[in-house]
Amino acid sequence: MEGSSQTKFNVSGVLLDRPFKIRRLGHFGFNVDDVETCLKFYGDLLGFSISDPIDFGARIKDEKTRETLGPGIGYFMRHGSDHHSFVLFPKRVLDELGGRSGRKDVTINQITWQVGSLREVTGAETWLRGLENPIRRSGRDTPGSNWHVYPFDPDENINELYYGIEQIGWDGHSKPAVFRKRGFQQTPDLPQISEYDEVQAALSEGADLQTGTRHTWNIEAKYDVGGILLPRPFKVVRIGPVRLFVDDLDSSVQFYRDRLGMKITERITWNGHDCVFLRVNTEHHSMALYPKKLRSELGLSDHTACMSFGLQLGGYDQLRDGIKFLEENDVQIRYLPPELFPGTDYSAFALDPDGHAIQLYYYMEQIGWDGKPRAAEVFSKDPEDWPEAVEAHTDSFSGEPYLGPLG
After folding, report:
1. Which of 14, 187, 324, 376 has the highest CB neighbour number within 10 Å of its CB?
2. What is the structure's pLDDT at 4?
3. What residues are paired with 361 via a beta bridge?
4. Three-state secondary structure along 165-216?
5. What is the pLDDT of residues 211-232, one digit of tens each?
6. Please, are residues 151 and 65 in contact by the beta-carbon 8 Å criterion?
7. Mapping DSSP to helix (H, G, I), strand (E, B) and coil, where does residue 110 land?
8. Which residues touch 168 (CB under 8 Å, ≥6 apart)?
9. SS3 at position 39
10. How far apart are CA 59 and CA 188, in angstroms?
């Protein structure tokens, strides 16, 4: 195991096997063929707000090429106060710009993991380069303001380790364009100034802090969700897990366990297929790895190696109401064998316009100090026989909480 050598790294006063520690899944995204159609699905139906648009098409200098590729606008989107927890970008334009995987079924834009400090980001880059792990780039992107490094996994999915993403407050405005001059296209020198000082500098230059993007809904807020009227009968309160179909299970486990430092919670065998579930915090798993041969057996789209992207809703009642709401809006819902999703209870999969599966669920088992999951028998086995209400688990409503108002 690469992370278990004699060398130890001081991470905020704690000796670890790597110079960083992942705290959570921060954001995720897809590159899609039809951004505007997908935007209605992820925005109007699932409730992600637009934080900022980004024009990738403008980066293609040849006008004729740009016209053949279609619209080049992508969107940073959020479900909470993070500048973005989900991104939706134009696949044909990004493929033309290059620098990403050449595999046709890599439709994931990025899988992004939060670490605890900028020093951990730069330490991760040095350490991963020493292991000759392919890295796309490092620095600091705007919009979003997060410092990062982008390593590839064995299947050429781009992972991101980041620190310091912009927070969007009660007024709903993202940072104005004046802050984008603090973007970096290379590894930053340490230390850097704080965000407080960045804001003070912008104010001293006369910046209007309310000129950033602010999303507005043109949908009636008519659903009572926990006593708050919302435009849909549920609220996304957490993102993840990410589920991948991979070419070589052992190589992928080595990357996510030994290089990124995830812990294996559980291994299962289903219909002769070995599957592995890894966590970064107390959740049962934030990453799940499945052999690619399983994709056709489940009847999932062969255009993507992403089995699914998970969205946790605020409760079991929201999950039931949300599925009904999506079906009423002509979204295809699939139910897959629950044995493939240990640590979760009832869940369903909504298919986006590009064919990506979005797992909707209300509960994720939390793993304690001993690192052991509970027996699979405590969870639902019938994917479609759902009661009106469910008995509480010992860790119901535990794990990462949603901060702030629902809407």
Report:
1. 187
2. 52
3. 312, 347
4. CCECCCCCECCCHHHHHHCECCCCCCCCCCHHHHHHHHHHCCCCCCCCCECC
5. 999 999 999 999 999 999 999 9
6. no
7. strand
8. 51, 78, 81, 82, 83, 174
9. helix
10. 24
